[in-house]
């Protein structure tokens, strides 16, 4: 007898025997549901034996038998009604617990998000991916007919998705492509650092999705619920089914604001901001100016554990803020601290000396091994967990006037619980070809992939042509194999007007795009700032998103 909790109110387990009932009652269970038909196995006690023992101990017991592999819609509804009416907590059991977990999942389909259902079941040891379509359909068995079908389906209309669609069309005009994305607005996220630094207006970084989609690409304005790669199908919310010949997965990642206690409630007020959100980046600049008017204060800048998108962004916000205070002549009256969950300032050592010069110039205190876990906005206090080699981790509280918080980040829920994910929840692809390791007609790029590169728009710009070529090669419409070398770029805005242009490939190998006499990426450069402010935005809108592969055309092998 091994109860496995699905919720606070329900656990499931393999077959129990009468002698287990006193233990279950002592644990605190108040109701039992039997989902196994009597006589299914030679070692199986009958339901009435369990019922007699349970009733004598004051437990409520119900018999809802289900044949193995044949959970009906009506049985799932009945299970949900039982769960609503019975005293809690409830234990449901069958031969292994799978039928009980399936009944629960189907009964909860209208009450909980599909990824939450799948993830809770997986944590309890039950793989319910085989019934995702039914869960997505409100617990009912759907008709197995595709609502749409396309040669190439791209999940995600961000930088990676639109770039790969445009690169495909540049190579194969007229190719039948659909992009699946529910968003109305497409954002140039690299620009939010400059919004938070008072350089760009927010509107400079946003355009309607319809205006940036490549001509001829179908836009399926919906959210993804699940994947069925064995059937070449994507399940959308509402159980609509889209079939594909090749699938490209690039939905970006999820900012897990809720992982930090108190943070969602105080974002955008009480001195708490983040350049990782479009609506909050202007508040960063407002706080910088407020502190300037006040004439003194304490500013905290945080960085969560890796991986995160644009790993340099947390300190970019810090440098631009510090530079603004320096220009206002009050830098010595602002206490600046960088609380980084990691143990180094930047992951590529070649760029650290230049960054350290600015850390010292601005008088920034570096606190490594500190992870933000709680924010009390009203009291202006942030709590950090300190890394500990052994024993219980220590907590430390820091006061602030301004807090630039960066949340932990992970793959989207529908990716993490899908057959496409690796053990950590990211899309599992070959780091060079970007082809899925288990499904030959599936490719992944961008922030949701498990490649060990920096998650930046510059990386997606290099990845998109690789995926485009390899998709067409899979279709027999191109020859050779394109390979991605792990290129990523992070323009580190160390002051207004100067940037340390970090460029590197897999393994942290420095990979400059320009000769050293033009831009030496290991030193602060005005030309690099000009590139960031004036060249990269139009290169993004009119180059990358249009399939123009300046300095991004992949080399082919074979």
UniProtKB/TrEMBL annotation:
SUPFAM superfamilies: (Phosphotyrosine protein) phosphatases II, FAD/NAD(P)-binding domain. Signal peptide: none annotated. Residues 73-144 form the Rhodanese domain. This is Rhodanese domain-containing protein.
């Amino acid at each position: 007898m091994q109860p496995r909790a699905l919720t606070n109110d329900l656990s499931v387990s393999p077959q129990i025997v009468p002698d287990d009932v006193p233990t279950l009652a002592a644990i605190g269970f108040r109701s039992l549901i039997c989902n196994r038909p009597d006589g299914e196995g030679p070692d199986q006690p009958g339901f009435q034996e369990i019922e007699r023992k349970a009733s004598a101990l004051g437990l409520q017991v119900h018999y809802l038998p289900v044949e193995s592999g044949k959970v009906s819609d009506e049985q799932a509804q009945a299970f949900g009604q039982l769960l609503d009416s019975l005293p809690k907590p409830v234990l449901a059991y069958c031969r292994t617990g799978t039928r009980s977990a399936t009944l629960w999942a189907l009964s909860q389909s209208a009450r909980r998000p599909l990824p939450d259902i799948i993830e809770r079941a997986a944590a309890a040891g039950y793989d319910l991916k085989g019934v995702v379509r039914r869960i997505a359909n409100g617990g009912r068995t759907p008709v197995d007919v595709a609502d749409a079908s396309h040669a190439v389906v791209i999940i995600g209309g961000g930088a990676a998705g639109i770039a790969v669609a445009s690169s495909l069309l540049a190579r194969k005009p007229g190719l039948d492509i659909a992009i699946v994305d529910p968003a109305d607005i497409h954002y140039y996220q690299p620009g939010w650092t400059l919004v938070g630094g008072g350089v760009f207006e927010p509107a400079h970084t946003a355009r309607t999705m319809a205006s940036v989609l490549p001509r001829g690409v179908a836009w399926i304005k919906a959210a993804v619920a699940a994947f069925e790669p064995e059937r070449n199908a994507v399940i959308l919310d509402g159980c609509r089914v889209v079939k594909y010949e090749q699938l490209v997965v690039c939905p970006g990642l999820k900012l897990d604001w809720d992982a930090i206690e108190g943070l969602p409630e105080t974002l955008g007020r009480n001195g708490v901001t983040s350049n990782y959100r479009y609506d909050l980046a202007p508040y960063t600049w407002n706080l910088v100016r407020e502190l300037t008017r006040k004439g003194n204060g304490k500013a905290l800048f945080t960085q969560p554990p890796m991986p995160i998108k644009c790993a340099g962004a947390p300190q970019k916000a810090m440098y631009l803020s510090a530079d603004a205070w320096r220009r206002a002549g009050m830098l010595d009256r602002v206490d600046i601290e960088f609380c980084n969950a990691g143990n180094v300032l930047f992951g590529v050592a070649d760029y650290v000396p230049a960054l350290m010069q600015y850390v010292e110039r601005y008088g920034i205190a570096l606190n490594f091994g500190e992870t933000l876990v709680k924010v009390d906005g009203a009291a202006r206090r942030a709590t950090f967990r300190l890394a500990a080699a052994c024993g219980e981790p220590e907590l430390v509280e820091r006061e602030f006037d301004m807090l630039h918080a960066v949340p932990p980040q992970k793959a989207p829920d529908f990716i993490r619980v899908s057959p496409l994910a690796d053990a950590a929840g990211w899309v599992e692809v070959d780091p060079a070809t970007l082809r899925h390791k288990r499904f030959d007609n599936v490719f992944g790029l961008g922030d949701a992939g498990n490649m060990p590169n920096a998650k930046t728009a510059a990386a997606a710009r290099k990845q998109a042509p690789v995926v485009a070529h390899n998709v067409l090669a899979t279709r027999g419409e191109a020859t050779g194999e394109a390979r991605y070398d792990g290129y990523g770029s992070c323009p580190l805005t160390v002051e207004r007007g100067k940037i340390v242009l970090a460029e590197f490939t897999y393994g942290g190998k420095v990979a400059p795009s320009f000769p050293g006499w033009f831009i030496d990426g290991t030193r602060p450069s005005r030309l690099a700032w000009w590139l960031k402010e004036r060249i990269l935005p139009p290169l993004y809108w009119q180059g990358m998103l249009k399939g123009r592969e300046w300095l991004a055309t992949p080399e082919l092998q074979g």
